[in-house]
Amino acid sequence: MKIRLNEMVFYGFHGVHDEERRLGQRFIVSATLYTDPALDAKIHNLEDTVDYTKVYDDIRDIMEDREQHFQLLENCANAIANKLLYGYPPIMEVKICIQKPSVPIQGSLKSVEVEVQRTRT
């Protein structure tokens, strides 16, 4: 089964430049969670699956934590993937996509995006 949390918007303090970490900016995060297909037919209660409200809270905590700043989106995406893979036993694989709409690039572009896909080992 796939569980998707699409385009969650957070205000975080991540980036290579001091101004990005001091002033903050918007980030858009999407997460796809893959569960074990052999267990999908046995889902009858919330306890049988992944509580996506808790997943949202965990992602928000990482993205909006004023004490933990990531210089690279890649590190941030890996931190989210680790938290979900090891914090939720039903999740077998995750795909995390982080978009950064306000990029300090001299030019025109909608956003920069990183995507990581990881499987439980």
The low-confidence parts are: none
The separation of the N and C termini measures 19 Å
Rg: 15 Å
Return the average pLDDT rounded to an integer: 92
Fraction in helix: 25-40%
The coarse overall form would be elongated
Sheet with the most strands: spatial strand order = 1-2-3-4
Total number of helical segments?
4
Helix-strand makeup class? alpha+beta
Which sheet architecture does the biggest sheet show? 4 strands, antiparallel
> What share of residues are in beta strands?
25-35%
Oligomer: single chain
Number of strands: 4
What's the helix-strand series?
A: EHEHHHEE
How would you describe this structure in keywords?
4 helices, elongated, alpha+beta, 121 residues
Question: How would you summarize the topology of this molecule?
Answer:
Elements: E1 2-12, H1 18-23, E2 25-35, H2 37-40, H3 52-64, H4 73-87, E3 91-100, E4 112-119
Antiparallel strand pairs: 1-2, 2-3, 3-4
Q: Can you walk me through this structure?
A:
It is a single chain. Helix content is 31%, strand content 33%. The model has no long low-confidence stretch (mean pLDDT 92). It starts with a strand and ends with a strand. A 4-stranded antiparallel beta sheet has the order 1-2-3-4. The radius of gyration is 15 Å and the shape is elongated. α3 packs antiparallel against α4. The chain has helices at residues 18-23, 37-40, 52-64, 73-87; strands at 2-12, 25-35, 91-100, 112-119.
Nutshell version of this structure?
This protein is α+β, with helices and mostly antiparallel strands and 121 residues long. The chain has helices at 18-23, 37-40, 52-64, 73-87, and strands at 2-12, 25-35, 91-100, 112-119.
